[in-house]
Write a structure and sequence with these properties.
The complex is a heterodimer of chains A (262) and B (303). Chain A has 12 helices and no strands. With 262 residues, chain A is an all-alpha fold. Chain B has a single domain, classed as Orthogonal Bundle (MetI-like fold). By secondary structure, chain B is an all-alpha fold. Classes of the chains: A mainly alpha (262), B mainly alpha (303). The interface between A and B is large, with 95 and 93 residues.
Chain lengths: 262, 303
């Protein structure tokens, strides 16, 4: 039977739509022109200029520091949560637990931002790096938990039982059998948490306060105050990092990227 | 009866340990989310009834003035506009995602994975950078403007930026991959012999598509609607960067109350409107699904 070509044409158009802005951005980052637009020759000068912007590097340092702490904390909380959800799936407590894990995923970011800001202000906490970490962990737990839960569902628990039968206690079995076998899933979940933390703008903007600046907040103020060619160069560098991360997570877990897209 | 040989004793002994294990694994994430997700969300409803304090904090005492301030027509217009932009975005995303999801699902396996990568990778890039990329190509000196002016479709004076059209375009760009993925997942599981059967029985291609394919991927369609519609309701960075004064959405108003007026209770009151607007479609889908299948929230456990 002859199939309609229409869906394939739409797909082609959609893919061009997806990639066009990104490709234009990368090309423009090598454009010597000050205001973008017309091509005035190939140049690395915007990249060179980036190295003389201490504010960007300080923001990048803050971002990495936050992301590292967030990744570690949310890995622990997300993994214990996934183990509980998997192991005690039938229990009443886990149904509440699951709702609590799932709901942050469907709540618009701005709502999480404003509610955390109000809570921090009401509790008298000083806004800064610590409030950013608290906020990031809150939305990363859910992603980590769901990715690890996905891994656990394909996991052959008879191996753990075998270890127990052979005399390993619960802790040894978890450390020597469960952890190494879950490692690729944990790495994928960690990468997702790391990326989400590095990339988050909306929630961070609400809870950051005046002192702590992260890279997305810096990029936002550059966009607002028009430092166009510099953002092009910075974005291209960030794209490289992102593509590297995606590639890595693909290698670590074949469906890592898909699960990240929940 | 000896102590240890009784099965009942044994179970009694084993049960508390199992309970302990469950609490041990559940409590960390449960308490964290209770403290930093559930309580703050509930707090918004309480603090909206507090007066604002002049230093950007939350005052003492109670007032309903903030909630009554929402009756201001400017908020009604903005709430209506937010709803309209979200509906339009959702409709456009579905219109593009159904053919795309179908085409990817029907492609040969190797090409299918490649196409999926092409869909996924751009949206792993920073959200701000993608919006910025659009700002620079819609810019008066940008690529799209030049092409359209050369083609004579747009007058050189017209602005492609800072209007509602730009906001919808960039919102579609941001959320379209989220619509393609669930529709692809549903289209991949669909049994295409059903369409052949319908065609054999005399259905025209469009009839078969509408009466057989669309109901077949219903689950994917509903997920797609949720993951596009709900975040667009809360959209704020997109109208902030590519929109103008005439295309402000609810999210912009909330941000203005926080960052410009430093009036947290009013921002909270506006958030309540947003929360209610988000809950409505969520509950609608839950009710719709409960009729036929298990709700999304439980279903996603297996995915």
């Amino acid at each position: 039977m002859k199939r309609s070509r229409f869906p394939f044409l739409v797909t082609g158009a959609v893919l061009i739509f997806f990639w066009l802005p990104i490709l234009v951005l990368i090309i423009q980052s090598f454009n010597a022109a000050r205001f973008g637009g017309a091509w005035q020759g190939f140049s690395f000068k915007w990249y060179a200029r980036l190295f003389h912007e201490p504010a960007i590097w300080e923001a990048a340092r803050n971002t990495l520091l936050i992301a590292l702490v967030v990744t570690l904390v949310s890995l622990v909380l997300g993994t214990t949560s996934a183990l509980a959800l998997h192991r005690f799936a039938k229990s009443r407590l886990q149904r509440f637990h699951y709702t609590l894990i799932y709901t942050p995923l469907v709540v618009p970011e701005i709502l999480m931002g404003i509610s955390l800001l109000m809570a921090f202000v009401a509790a008298g906490l000083r806004l800064g790096m610590i409030t950013i970490v608290l906020a990031h962990v809150t939305f990363c737990i859910s992603y980590v938990a769901l990715v690890v839960l996905g891994r656990l569902q394909d996991f052959d628990f008879t191996i753990v039982e075998a270890a127990r039968d052979l005399g390993a206690n619960g802790w040894t079995a978890a450390r020597r059998i469960l952890l190494p076998m879950l490692a690729p899933g944990l790495a994928a979940a960690g990468l997702i948490a790391f990326t989400l933390s590095v990339d988050d703008f909306v929630i961070t903007f609400f809870v950051a306060g005046p002192g702590a600046t992260t890279l997305p907040i810096r990029v936002y103020s550059m966009i607002k105050h028009g430092a166009t060619p510099l953002i092009n160069a910075l974005s291209t560098l960030l794209l490289l990092v992102t593509f590297g991360t995606v590639f890595l997570s693909q290698r670590l877990s074949k469906s890592g990227a898909m699960e990240g897209g929940i | 009866m000896t102590k240890s040989s009784s099965p009942r004793r044994l179970r009694k002994w084993a049960m508390p340990k199992k309970r302990f294990g469950e609490w041990f694994l559940t409590l960390p994430s449960f308490v964290w989310l209770l403290l930093f997700f559930f309580v703050p969300t509930a707090l918004v409803f309480v603090l909206a009834f507090r007066p604002a304090d002049p230093f950007g904090g939350i005052g003492r005492g109670w007032t309903t003035a903030t909630i009554r301030a929402l009756a201001d027509p400017q908020y009604l217009i903005i709430a209506g506009r937010t709803l309209w932009v979200s509906l339009l975005t959702t409709a456009i995303c579905l219109g593009l995602a159904v053919p795309t999801g179908y085409a990817i699902a029907r492609a040969p396996l190797r090409r299918r994975n490649f196409l999926l990568m092409l869909v996924i990778v751009p949206f792993w890039t920073s959200f701000l950078i993608r919006i910025f990329a659009w700002k620079s190509i819609l810019h008066p000196e940008g690529l799209i403007k030049k092409i359209l002016v050369t083609l004579g479709w747009v007058s050189p004076q017209a602005s492609l930026l800072y209007n509602l059209g730009a906001v919808v375009l960039v919102t579609v760009y941001t959320f379209l991959p989220f619509a393609v993925l669930p529709i692809y997942a549903a289209a991949e599981k669909f049994d295409y012999r059903l369409i052949e059967a319908a065609r054999d029985l005399g259905a025209r291609p469009f009839q078969a598509f509408r009466a057989i394919f669309l109901p077949g991927i219903r689950q994917g369609l509903m997920t797609a609607v949720l993951v596009v519609f709900i975040p667009s309701l809360g959209s704020y960075v997109i109208p902030d960067i590519v929109g103008g004064p005439g295309s402000e959405l609810l999210g912009n108003k909330i941000a203005q109350r926080v960052f410009v007026d430093r009036n947290l209770p009013l921002a909270g009151a506006l958030s309540i409107v947003l929360i209610l607007a988000v809950l409505a479609p969520l509950l609608a889908v839950l009710v719709l699904q409960r009729k036929k299948e298990r709700p999304v929230i439980v279903r996603a456990e297996g995915s």
